Amino acid sequence: MNLTLKIWRQNGSSDRGRMVTYEVQDVSPDMSFLEMLDVLNERLILEGDDPVAFDHDCREGICGMCGMVINGVAHGEQRATTTCQLHMRHFEDGATVTIEPWRAAPFPVVKDLVVDRSAFDRIIQAGGFISVPAGSAPDAHAVPVPKDDADAAFDAATCIGCGACVAACPNGSASLFTAAKITHLGLLPQGQPERASRAKAMVEQMDAEGFGGCTNTGECTAVCPKGIPLDAIARMNADYIKTAAK
Amino acid sequence: MAVTGAVLVLFLVGHMVGNLKSFLGADSFNHYAEWLRTVGSPALPNRTLLTIAEIGLVVAVVLHMWSAVSLARRAAKARPVKYAARVKPQAGGYATRTMRYGGVIILLFVIWHLLDLTFGVVNPKGGQATPYDRLVAGFAPDRWWVTVFYLVAMVMVGLHLRHGLWSALQTLGLAHRYKALKATSTVVSAVLVLGFAAVPVAVMIGVVK
């Protein structure tokens, strides 16, 4: 299949950036989206051009490195799928595909489609530690965890921190990411001692990074490759309100 | 956003119940309107509680708009460079996407509504007639366009509430049961829309006269 790509090119953070059109020929429908970009980049290198920079690592949908806004949708229109797991068979031959980086002030563009997501790391750092006894490994099942809580905590813990929630949010809010991190510790017994201070510190860091406010539009959970549920945000708000009331 | 919205929803419930008194006849409706002004007397002067409620509502509306504007400004700051491709909403939610300009339309409606039935400026009977006469004259069949305008506005209010109610519960950290609460918000919004729409329609088709 042949495609017309409109790709955001930006040579460093001080460059203004622009959309550039490329034609790619002989794309296999079995290729992943990133492999299609690899084909383009090999050609660009042979022609002496600068290849398109994009983030990627495992290409198995579990690391959270890749991510781009494809035709106006974070990670493309395929639900619960990272860009690396999106395959070209979902596109029509001859289609025009627009590819842009995540757009958010706290995610500055490093180059082309690569953005700096250190803001997420700082939110995690603000969460601090959990108090667990160090030393020898505890006996299995020494701390009982109700099955429902374990499941909900695990659902939240599947967040890979890719940033699609921020990219898709009309407000540029990082609430789903922060809520997933707060929820997965907050639901487990090991996370209880610092539960309140953790929620407060992480929410305040999120706001300090310049993310927008949540208006519960649900765009984040719709594009989330891991399908983190929206009620994580309710749990975050509940924890935050409890600390604010103290 | 959530707390001020909750105040306004409570007002809407009371307002709708009061409106439905028009089905019980002119005396019942006028008496209710009189009661709103005299409730609490003789311990309190007339209009004491009504004035407190009015001030409370104005404060809630102003704070609600202030929250909306500050959220919109934060959103604009958080995404200085817009997407080149048209962003395709993935979560459905027409009501969700109309919150901001829908709110402006509701504000314009409230201004017209106060001029019409409270102050009587744009009402054919004027401000001196009884509330019931103003109601019947305002939605008379030959003024069908007023009724249509009210019905459109009520649908806008319903859409606003459908997202607003659930969103408020989520913001206050109460929405752990996503589907049940979303369904409840939709039902409550629909009941309010039907309750409010019933009165103008009844006047227009001559059931209330």
UniProtKB/TrEMBL annotation, chain B:
InterPro entries associated with the record: Cytochrome_b-558, SQR/QFR_C/D, SuccDH_FuR_B_TM-su
Top-rank lineage group of the source organism: Bacteria
Pfam families according to UniProt: Sdh_cyt
Keyword field: Heme, Iron, Membrane, Metal-binding, Transmembrane, Transmembrane helix
Record's keyword annotation contains Protease: no
Keyword Membrane: yes
Main localization, broad class: membrane
Subcellular location: Membrane
A single MF term (Gene Ontology): metal ion binding
Segments traversing the membrane: 49-72, 98-115, 144-165, 186-208
GO cellular component annotations of the record: membrane
Protein name as it appears in the record: Succinate dehydrogenase
Organism: Planotetraspora kaengkrachanensis
